[in-house]
Amino acid sequence: MRKGSPSRLLDQIGRDVDEGALAGRVALLPTGSVEYHGPHGPLGTDTFIARELAERVGARRPRLVVLPELAYMPCPIETRRHAGTVQVAPSVAAALLEQLLRSLFAAGFAGVVLLNAHDGAITPATVAGDAVSDDFPDAFVALVSWWETLPADEARALAGFSDNGGHGHGGPLEMSVTQAIVPELVRPELAQDVDEAEAPPPNVVVVPHARVPPRGYHGRVSEIDREHGRLLLDLATDRVVARIDRLVARLGIG
């Protein structure tokens, strides 16, 4: 839930930056994708969630500086075979993130938190953070993936999601939250329920293309509910704020 306005990087005045307005602060980078989320969901699903959470968290903690969202990331074969998905090679995404981190740390930021809504961002973020660590030994990079704040058992109890607590690409957890953010862009009536069992097997790095389910999403779309999405969005916001609070306290950052 928002309280006030976030401090956005794009709003900073050059004079203030010259005088050290960014020094010692923590940047919040919303990380999403442009990716097919089934016939019922917008291509910007991940980016909408990351951006909304970053705005909410930034409003609660104005010492954080909210960056423009990063929407281009690697996507799996399950979604990049569908029109509309914008695929970026992992090496390209890691190189871009590395350059962003270097620029931010050179500007005086003490750390960067990637507020992540896309699974494909995890590896590039890890590679990029490692690449800059020796040159900026006093800075930190953290990754907070929003869905990890809503465990399956709890999501099932709160919202009644019957299959894996609603977790899954284009499933009711993700789509309920998206519907709470952009209600006009989520259309459950355009899709059918798809059991989690139709997703690629877990822990398989490369799946033969012929074995990849063709739908590009999974989950029981009939359980998408805007009101549950609002509840879960508020809860995720609270928990992301708490995670960042613990992180900066542990690292001794003001």
Fold and architecture overview:
The structure is a single chain. The protein has 254 residues and is an alpha/beta fold. The chain has one domain: Creatininase (Rossmann fold), CATH 3.40.50. Helices cover 39% and strands 9% of the residues. The chain has eight helices and five strands, in the order E-H-E-H-E-H-H-E-H-E-H-H-H. It has helices at 14-18, 45-60, 77-80, 90-106, 122-133, 152-159, 172-181, 226-251, and strands spanning 7-8, 26-31, 64-66, 111-116, 140-145. Strands 1-3-2-4-5 form a five-stranded parallel beta sheet, sandwiched between helices. Strand 4, helix 5 and strand 5 form a beta-alpha-beta unit. Helix 2 (45-60) crosses helix 7, helix 2 crosses helix 8 and helix 7 (172-181) crosses helix 8. The chain is globular and about 55 Å long. The two termini are 23 Å apart.
